[in-house]
Specification:
Number of strands: 7
Number of helices: 9
Distance between the termini: 29 Å
Structural class: alpha/beta
Shape: globular
Helix content: 40-55%
Order of helices and strands: EHEHEHEHEHEHHEHH
Largest sheet: 7 strands, mixed
Strand order of the largest sheet: 3-2-1-4-6-5-7
Strand content: 15-25%
Radius of gyration: 17 Å
Length: about 240
């Protein structure tokens, strides 16, 4: 495998510096995607990229397009640079970077599968987020006719980029917070299997969350509805997949 990190960043100037310090020891090239951040965050990212130019590439989007749009830009740059896999991780410090070797080991064992983080919540997790995740995972099971995907929203994942590139060539994915749901279901429809990896999650290091309870839940509900319609169109193929 030739693996890089892809980190979408939007106004996490306090969390990104310690996160990069923790990531450096793994020796993975990193693509930081500035999703139209504030001038203060933009400057921090420019300084980080200059200080760590040997392993960090900074992409700067002209305006905020949402998490999904930023991750897609990162994936496209990774594909253009010849990487085979991309390890997506959120910028707010909520993920346990000590699990990176586990992701890489599973990726080596299953290079054509997606390795998905399954969050193990701590006491600081908002109850609304935990219960909302259960609803999302129910609809993912419906839309894949499977319980293969342990969690549909964790932003800590290892993707095989050949499959991602094929998907991006023919599909327009949700640009915002529904992206993680959209891509994992569509990759499953394209034949990818999932390997689930339990990983600890904390909320968040810098106290900044860009998840809007009402707006983003409405968008996620709309994504589930679109995926449900897509599942109905693929129903015979999905049923046949389970009867092999």
């Amino acid at each position: 495998m030739k693996t890089c990190l892809v980190i979408p960043v939007y106004n996490h100037e306090r969390a990104i510096v310690p996160l990069l310090a923790r990531l450096e020891r793994f020796g993975l090239p990193c693509i930081l995607v500035d999703d139209g951040s504030s001038p203060a965050c933009r400057q921090v990212l420019i300084e980080c990229a200059a200080r760590h130019r040997s392993w960090i590439t900074l992409l700067q989007r002209p305006s905020n397009g949402g998490k999904g749009a930023a991750v897609v830009d990162g994936f496209q740059r990774a594909i253009a640079q010849g990487f085979s896999h991309a390890l997506q991780i959120d910028a707010d410090g909520q993920h346990d970077v000590d699990d990176i070797p586990k992701f890489l080991e599973l990726g080596c064992q299953h290079p054509e599968k997606m390795i998905l983080g399954t969050p193990q919540y701590q006491s600081d997790a908002p109850k609304s987020r935990v219960h909302g995740r259960k609803i999302t995972n129910f609809w993912i099971a419906v839309n894949t006719l499977s319980t293969a995907i342990g969690d549909g929203m964790c932003g800590f994942r290892l993707y095989p980029l050949t499959a991602v590139g094929q998907l991006l060539a023919g599909s327009r994915l949700a640009p915002g917070m529904a992206f993680d749901i959209d891509i994992v279901v569509r990759l499953y429809w394209h034949g990818l299997e999932a390997v689930n990896l339990a990983t600890a999650v904390r909320y968040p290091l810098d106290g900044v969350s860009h998840f809007d309870l009402w707006r983003d839940n409405l968008k996620i509900s709309a994504a589930h509805a679109r995926l449900f319609c897509g599942m109905l169109l693929r129903l015979p193929r999905l049923l046949a997949r389970h009867w092999r």
